[in-house]
């Protein structure tokens, strides 16, 4: 409590100035005109005396406790008396015995005989209530700080945005909507960059503990791995995990491990093994691993997969990402189509390479009323790049022809060559189809049956397209077909080129997806246990007997046909058909792609930019991509208790 250093009797009485000694500063008297009357001078003195009296800050004295008053918590700068009996708060001007006594006698005269010990006990109770209320407010402020930090991490924003943008906006909005008091409370939310970093670290550790507990409860799990570098050239190994949780399958971010030196298979395995050992993850429960097919991952003897097989479940199944294989299938082209693609990329680079060329091309597109005003660059590492780049190029082919003619570019004549343009049109169509396949393989919670089924469907489509081309039909390639009709071209000019390319696609598909290595062989009973032939099932005699019993259960058939997922069905019967359920789930939790890792690398580039190149991205990355939410309520309570115990 604040107290005046020197106690004097004058603070107990009201201020009453003497007229022969006016309370004025010397420089104030200079403003008085000698010609003014004595009456005006006295009025001026009275006004200044009142202002001096009003501006005086009165301080609390311990003797005021005998009248039932203490300083109201939070008003120490300009103390306000608080009545312990009725909790009424008075102004600072009332901080004097006469006014406090008047309040006490008027409202609490029945307590006049109480001793000072009574008011001391009452003070402790009242102040404890204020402390409890302040603790509750502090806890809410802490909770709000965690929530805002979580939003910052999930939206991949810099940590200082809380202090530089979010808090000022919140304070101003509260001031406008609710007033200064509420705005002052909002201003107390801790949102500094260091605080946000601590909050994100705490929540990230909480989410990691949740994932590890779920993995421990699951009978087995599978992982997907991929390695890349961040903006500061640090090598990062990402790992996602898929496991059984209750009556469903969950997949989540497991870890991001920094590789200090070379990204060899031994370095990757050592980093991953250290993490598993440190967090008590049992390798023997790992039944599947999916990688991007790089040499350090799939080397026959010393690759990462080979090393994992030595310590993991004996029936571990390894797979090469289907999306990556689809990209490898689409890459080879005949010489003439390859030359067309190379020329297209060269023209686009010419237009986009210089800022002046880009501006001139944009102006030309505006003058010609084009739908688009710029070309798209091609990047091999982007899955959908070629298809989108070719579509935009074909849509702007007339504008590009005019522009290259103005620039006297050596490839300008190609934009008026129908044989060349019709090949571009075919590339637009075929890569559009490949992009659709690629997009269908992306996404979470895809099992090997669904993904491999889509690859089979595309191969069958190629066979259908070839048969339709033999009839000179371009229904499946609308861009190419429309151009042939528009220019009244002879279809034979392009048919041979297309047939050759489709044949090449079929051969490449067969090489990257050999029928003998199909993981579905002998396991189609998982997809439909009620219609599969026992001869096609890779099961023991006991398991086949269980399958016969299962397939004869009409109630289970109705349940299976009700539309629930495969995983939900097999998990729902794990008590009655434990062997079949376990074998089915070992296959259903396998990853078919490294899509989650690729998606997370994109998130990593958004979090760790060249302006934040020193940031340790791993904690914020977990909150940005994890499907689990941190237990903010528990974290808030835990931190509040720690702070209280430390005081």
Strands ordered across the widest β-sheet:
5-4-3-6-7
SS summary, helix count:
26
Fraction of residues in H or I helices? 55-70%
- On the 0 to 100 scale, the average pLDDT is 85
Structural class: alpha/beta
Number of strands: 7
What's the multimeric state? single chain
Proportion of residues in extended strands: 5-15%
Q: Give the biggest beta sheet.
A: 5 strands, mixed
Distance between the termini: 19 Å
- Please mark out the parts with pLDDT under 50 across 5 or more consecutive residues, or reply none: 1-36
Biased composition (Basic residues): 38-53
InterPro entries: HATC_C_dom, RNaseH-like_sf
Domain HAT C-terminal dimerisation: 567-621
GO molecular function: protein dimerization activity
Key features?
647 residues, alpha/beta, two-stranded antiparallel ribbon, 26 helices, 7 strands, 7% strand, extended, disordered N terminus
Describe this structure in words.
Residues 38-53 have a biased composition (Basic residues). With 647 residues, the protein is of the alpha/beta class. Among the domains are: 9-109, no CATH class; 334-515, no CATH class; 524-588, no CATH class. 56% of the residues lie in helices and 7% in strands. It contains 26 helices and seven strands. Strands 5-4-3-6-7 form a five-stranded mixed beta sheet. Helix 4 packs across helix 7. Mean pLDDT is 85; it is low at 1-36.
